[in-house]
Amino acid sequence: MKTTGRSGLVATTSSGRRPPLRRPRGLPAVAAGIILFVSLGRPAVTAAQGAATGRIQGTVEISNTLAARRPRFRIYSDPGTGALPPAGPRDPIAAELRNVVIYLEGDALRDAKGPPTAHASMAQRDERFVPHVLPILVGTTVDFPNQDDVFHNVFSLSSAAAPGEKGFDLGRYPKGSSKSWTFERRGTVQVFCHIHSDMGAFVLVLPNPFFAVPDDDHRYVIDGVPEGDYSVVGWHERAKTVVHKIHVTAGQTTPVDFNIPLPPPEKRTP
After folding, report:
1. Of 5, 29, 44, 72, which alpha carbon lies 20 to 30 A from 51's?
2. Cα(245)–Cα(87) distance, rounded to whole angstroms?
């Protein structure tokens, strides 16, 4: 089985076609659909998923400027391992593509809720958070395993990080240890490490499972979308969101391509 991008609801065969769907005898369409998504290990979408569905797919292009990150440095660090920040990725464009999230918004998705993934993971590896951007469904628990030889910490001050807009702090812990946090509110959550000031990442908490991350070929697919009108949003941490208005027709594919533009220049005070 092959997946195109990291999507909430994508499943294809090696030929690129969706596998034939066979409904068990005696089961209504809604029940058969729920059984199908559970068997694929994807979030089971209730209510709206019982209707006929279509597909959204396209490509994502990003600016070279977005892939050119500022140099990382540490003001306070002890000699030895961890004193210097790690080197950047070999292919900045491919790495930055994985930091783009395509997701859907629309009234037709108000009832399209499914159980969150049991656990997602954002590792601390080579003194980075991996992945740098993690899209999840509301209610998902994220594990933060420490895979480095140094102590790490995970904390957030984002208002969406916890009820009451209090953020969270998981404390310090060594290699081989892991701590977790459950994200109950939708929104963008920035996470950091108290010990290494240049470490940072994003958890994008979304209200429905219709989202995807482009693959190395710049392609994404969002499958199983109920017929209706939607806003397809392209998100990147350093660019203004790009929004396309579309209509999805049951049994058809709606093409939507994204070009993530340059961020606006910083204003300089005289």
Report:
1. 5
2. 39
Q: Are 70 and 266 in contact (CB under 8 A)?
A: no
Question: What is the value of pTM for the model shown?
Answer: 0.73
pLDDT tens track for 170-222:
999 999 999 999 999 999 999 999 999 899 999 999 999 999 999 999 999 99
Half-sphere exposure of 263 (CA within 13 A, CB side): 13
Encoded amino acid at 45, one letter: V
Return the HEC string of 89-120. CCCHHHHHHCCCEEEEECHHHCCCCCCCCCEE
Separation CA 163–CA 94 (nearest Å): 35
- Sign for the CA dihedral angle at 37, 20, 49, 56 comes to positive
Q: In angstroms, rounded to a whole number, what is the distance separating the alpha carbons of residues 7 and 11?
A: 9
Domain ranges in the chain are 6-260
Closest CA relative to residue 204, chosen from 178, 169, 237: 237
Q: What's the rounded Cα separation, in Å, for the pair 182 and 156?
A: 13
Residue type, 208: N
DSSP 41: T
Token couple for 189: 């959550």
Phi then psi dihedrals of residue 204, to 5 deg: -100, 105
Is residue 254 within 8 A of residue 130, CB to CB? The reply is no
Q: Looking at the domain 6-260, which fold is it? A: Immunoglobulin-like (2.60.40)
